[in-house]
């Protein structure tokens, strides 16, 4: 490290903030479960156009189907989308019933629709800044701010208060999620291929041990000793060639691993830059909704109390009261078990 490069000393508040952010971002790791992503009307229009042109699902819907994303939409955003279908149909050269059929068949089965009450919408001041710019964007902004850090799938830079800086930021986030998942699979493959002979040998030894008992290990020892003896009996030049070949294989594997690991790291950087940042001060209501958004199963009030950070934790009775008071936002799918949002279908 150069002499001028000093290690910064963080205050307790800065360190605590970094630890909270790291904990929340770790929950957005695709290896740990689907990432919350909030849909805006304009993004749906672009996705429908892409689907009609290419004949395949947009990356966002496909990612929700295969489990990398969990798509959410505010109820008023869904209503706005339905009201704009005649405009979209005219622009895309199809009929309104056809667009509605595509949404009902391909999109809405993968989207949780959340109906936020007015008081809950106003909990995060960032959403109010978006409302001041465009009232139509307020529902999506409110939901994104409550569930942040998350992806906000929009092309509208009126969401600047939530960290949206470019038209394609949401799309870049979706593609980064896909790249991370593909990269993780490739990393596992790079690690697994050199290990295949050892796994095969291990399986063979287990089989041999079952058949002939401990004598199998004696035989293995003799084989290994024979291999070592054979290697030592080779001319010096041949031994050097064997070493070079082994080193070449190891170098290739390490280069492959480094390349893929670099791609995954870059995708993670892109994903983090594409997300709506967490709120400066999270409310208890926001924390409850976020835990429900991250969970793949319904949660009870007691389970939520265990998951909530101590700074926003409420008594179980208070959490239960909040869930029941907001039955249009959260839904009880089993006795005492709640989920965020529900599925809708558009009607003509």
Q: Please give the CATH class of the largest domain.
A: Alpha Beta
The percentage of residues in β strands lies in 5-15%
Query: Radius of gyration, Cα only, in angstroms?
Result: 27 Å
Note the main sheet: 5 strands, mixed
- What is the CATH fold-level name of the largest domain? Rossmann fold
Residue-averaged pLDDT? 81
SSE order and pairing:
Layout: H1 12-26, E1 35-39, H2 41-54, H3 59-66, E2 69-74, H4 75-83, H5 85-92, H6 96-107, E3 111-114, H7 118-121, H8 125-133, H9 138-147, E4 150-153, H10 169-212, H11 215-233, H12 236-274, E5 275-276, H13 284-294, H14 301-307, H15 316-325, E6 330-334, E7 337-340
Parallel strand pairs: 1-2, 1-4, 2-3
Antiparallel strand pairs: 4-5, 6-7
Describe the 3D structure.
The protein has helices spanning about 10-25, 40-55, 60-65, 75-85, 85-90, 95-105, 120, 125-135, 140-145, 170-210, 215-235, 235-275, 285-295, 300-305, 315-325, and strands at about 35-40, 70-75, 110-115, 150-155, 275, 330-335, 335-340. A hairpin with a 2-residue loop joins β6 (about 330-335) and β7 (about 335-340). It is α/β, with parallel strands linked by helices and about 350 residues long. The protein folds into two domains: about 10-165, 5'-nuclease (Rossmann fold, 3-Layer(aba) Sandwich), CATH 3.40.50.1010; about 180-275, no CATH class. The chain starts with 11 loop residues before the first helix and ends in an 8-residue tail after the last strand. The radius of gyration is 27 Å and the shape is globular. Strands 3-2-1-4-5 form a five-stranded mixed sheet, sandwiched between helices.
